[in-house]
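User: I've been going back and forth on whether these two constructs are worth ordering. Before I decide, could you fold them both?

Assistant: Sure. I'll take them in the order you sent them. The first construct and its structure tokens:
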Amino acid sequence: MKHKKLQQTPLPRICLISSGEADTGNGILLLDQLNLLPADIPCIVQIREKHLNTKDLLTLALKARKISLPEGSLLLCNERADVALAAGLDGIHLPETAVPPDKLRAFAPLLIFGCSIHSPEAFLVAEQSGADYLLFGPVFDTPSKRQYGAPQGLKKLGELCRASSLPIYALGGVTPENAARCMDEGAYGTAGLSVFRDTSRMAETLEQFYTILNP
């Protein structure tokens, strides 16, 4: 039996993923990004610093939580439900191989749960276990994912979007130049990591995405 959705307001259509292991400053880049978010552009922000130990990750999450984000934004932690709860975050994003949402929701009934999916099988598990949104990719070619094989492509994105009632975010090589093609396939929004890494252009990039994703 599926849980009753707790999210009442629409999810933001842009998902910004922190740089993870590429950020050697223990989350300094993420904090800079949060401080630079345009006030009128809500985002889902996923803290994905997998290389940090629990203490440092919690410290980063607490610092991030203190930053005033655009209204409607959601701050999530990758996989670590304990850190999300301790820091008062809005939700948890679960990798495809992680424990499904229904195994965690009893301990965190008020949190948003997102799931990464890379196959129809993972899609069914995530949807049936009560995910609030899905993140699918890589859609386009992206250097960070080449070691895992060819991109999934727009056709597979469209097939999943038509099969699901959940919001699906397109990830992997998505830019303002090709985001509309993802929307044409039924994507609810887009997610990115490297596209937001240049903080000098981040606000401009977010504004471009926002215009495309919110026609």
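The second construct, handled the same way:
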Amino acid sequence: MIWRAILHFPQSLLHRFLARHADTSPTADFRLKSFMGRWYEQARLENPFEYGMDGVYSEYALIAPGQISVSNHGIAPGGKHSLARGQAFMPDSTVPGRLRVSFVPPYTWFSSPLHILYTDEGYREALVSGSGGHYLWLLTRERHPGSDSISHLLSEARRRGFDTSSLRYTHQP
């Protein structure tokens, strides 16, 4: 894991440089309850904690008002199943699409921003990022969505200033 992070540090710097102009403002009409459930990752800006993973999906569940359990699943290179459990919370109820997430207890002092940039009306597709624009995930409710969903998410990412040519497409077995 350490070697992966070291080897991909230059790529990470490039992503940060290219993404600095991306619009990461959360969607204004986000409904937390509608977002709960399973989301399949279709593409992402590669990052050290998911490097080379396929079969990636996340599950979100409300555990208390404003408190969300998060389970991230994936298949690491070599075929080993990876699971990361954490918690997310909404730090400001006036900006519902802005969450903070942590996979390190205690959850509130070591957390990272997670912005829900876009969801369609039926909460079947979503675009999610960190606050700096160097993380990006294209998510769908279906493991194998139609090409229209992917095209729509790519358009939204480009409209917001993300370099979609750097995306790594996630193989969903």
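Notes on the second construct follow. Helices lie at 2-7, 9-19, 32-35, 147-159. The first strand starts at residue 37 and ends at 45.
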